[in-house]
Amino acid sequence: MWEKYDEASMGIVVRHIKSISLPDTVFEPGERPAKGAQKRTKTSSKANNSPDLPNRQPRSFYTPPVEMLKSQQRT
C-alpha cells in the first residue's frame, strides 16, 4: 500500500473505459494506439441540402372537418 494513502480522506474508483477515451498524458510518446474512423454526427435535414440524401417530404395527416365529426356523433 502507498505510504501517503489516507483511507479517511481518499478513495479509489475503478471504471472500465475504452483506451481511445484515455487522455494523451497516460501514454508514452508514440505509444498511443491509432484512432479508428470517426462516426458521423447527425445534422438537421433542413440544414443539409446534400445531393446524396433523398428528398423526403413530411407526412401529411388527414384531419376531417369539424362538421363531419359532428354529423357522425349524431348518428
TrEMBL record:
List, as start-end ranges, the regions of compositional bias called Polar residues. Answer: 44-60
Region annotation Disordered: where it falls in the sequence: 22-75
Q: Where is the signal peptide?
A: none
Q: Which InterPro entries match?
A: PolA_pol_RNA-bd_dom (IPR007010)
Q: Which residues form the Poly(A) polymerase RNA-binding domain?
A: 1-33
Any one Pfam family here would be: PAP_RNA-bind
In alphabetical order, the GO MF annotations are:
RNA binding
Q: What is this protein called?
A: Poly(A) polymerase RNA-binding domain-containing protein
> What organism, scientifically named, is this protein from?
Amanita muscaria (strain Koide BX008)
